[in-house]
Amino acid sequence: MNSELTKAKVISSLIWKLLERGGTQGIQFIVTIVLARLLLPEEFGLIVLVTIFITIAGVFIQSGFNTALIQKKNSDEVDFSSVFFLSLFVASLLYIGLFFMAPIIATFFEEPQLKTVLRYQSLTLFFGAFNSIQIAVVSKNLEFKKLFISSLGAMIISATAGIMMAYAGFGVWSLVVQHLSNQLLVTIILWFTVKWRPTLLFSFARIKTLFAFGWKVLVSSLLDTLYINLTSLFIGKMYSSATLGFYNRGEQFPKLIVSNINGSIQSVMFPTLSSHQDNIKRVKDIVRRSIVTSSFIVFPVMVGMAAVAEPLVNIVLTEKWLPAVPFLQIFCASYALWPIHTANLQAINALGRSDIFLKLEIFKKLLGLVVIAISIPFGAYAMAFGVFVVSIISTFINAYPNLKLIDYRYREQWKDIIPSLILSIIMGMVVYSIQWIGMTEALTLIVQIIVGIVIYIGLAKALRLECYTYLITTGKEMLKNKKRKAG
User: I need a surface site. Which of 164, 338, 406, 480 has the fewest CB within 10 A?
Assistant: First the structure.
């Protein structure tokens, strides 16, 4: 496979992954807005608590071995089938555990309804075990078009069901049905679109080999998931479900956008890096391109969203959600740094150094626990700000191993992102000042968005930013190739 073909396949995969993430999350975003206007913050807080426990359990199923399957160059049917049956077995154990722990968890958080909701919502663990292998096959072969079809189709149907139930007055159960039906439909559609089928093959030797790499990723993912959700657990216990609802809604907007953009890039980046793991220079080039490109896109979106936070929340979610505004602004700053985190970590994993990855996660989580402990007495907003502080420090921690692994220095990394950051800050200051003109809130928001786009793109073009030029050139090349094929 020549370099041009590889580049074409990577870019094509990235586009399909962006469409898949953007399409499904876009629909989910609309559903969330509709449901937020129909349901109470307390009901969203309840579902957040349930999701935390399922997410933690899901790490044991969807992390570690799946990543090892993608990272291993010569993984075959025995590897995939062995992991599949192991995942189903683990899912069964986890479901039984959550089923019997549900009453205890409900009592601890003083939420009686949590028991039944958790028991039903935990069924998604089985779907996750099944489609995690299907997704690994898709990722391994960069066939993200199939994932786009399954995810978008499932989201449309499940979203419709959730909204209809909310209008009918089913409350929190509308969220439960939406999540359950979405995972079920994704699994069914992938069954027909992905050729892989489990066979009656199982090898402890293969599991042991994959476990040598995967257990470190698993533990790292578990630590990360526990840490991310620890703040929510403290807020849910120490304050109220409503406060947790505000915290979660404030995090959801920036997380939704960044996970779509940056997550799509990283989903394609990991298998691509793994295929070039023997060429350090090539790995560095890919990591650098990922950081530059995702920062150029993510920075202005996050700065812009923080600048328009209040009118955005008031118009989209209504006045009852305004306490979420400070959370939203803090998380915009935190998630803006994701491109730096994930690109560096993907490089470490792709080079097979999951041992370093694990050490980094342990160190960062210990640091995070200290920051959480310090911030708890000062309230939920202080706890959110603590997440931002840890995020800043983590950019240096995550980049440190790559100083030697791929010779990508701190000075080089910051030199790559500073131009986009400066332009974003300038754009954000102008956008924020527009609110003082005195227009209606809706018109102000529209003008802010338009002005922000024009200023950022205009400055990038005028200053001939390398990333802007790269994106424009790549887009033109793709259009030419498409016309050539059509002709």
Answer: 480
For 52, 55, 231, 232, the CA distances from 369, given in Å and listed in that order, are 17, 19, 9, 13
Residue type, 275: S
Question: Would the CA dihedral through 292, 334, 182, 98 be positive or negative?
Answer: positive
Tell me whether residue 109 is exposed, middle or buried, using C-beta atoms within 10 angstroms of its C-beta: 0 to 12, 13 to 18, 19 or more: middle
Compute the distance between CA of residue 474 and CA of residue 187 in angstroms, rounded to an integer: 34
**Block residue for tokens 């995702």:** 294
Q: What residues contact residue 319 under an 8 Å CB cut-off, 6+ apart? A: none
Q: Are 360 and 75 in contact (CB under 8 A)?
A: no
- Going by pLDDT thresholds of 50, 70 and 90, the confidence category of residue 4 is very low
Tokens describing residue 161: 């069901």
% of residues, the chain, pLDDT over 70: 83
**Which tens digits make up the pLDDT trace of 94-142?**
999 999 999 998 898 888 888 999 999 899 899 888 877 877 777 766 6
pTM of the entire structure? 0.69
CA nearest 252: which of 174, 162, 317, 167?
317
CA dihedral angle for residue 121, residue 122, residue 123, residue 126, rounded to 10 degrees: 140
Contact in structure between 224 and 365 (CB atoms under 8 Å):
yes
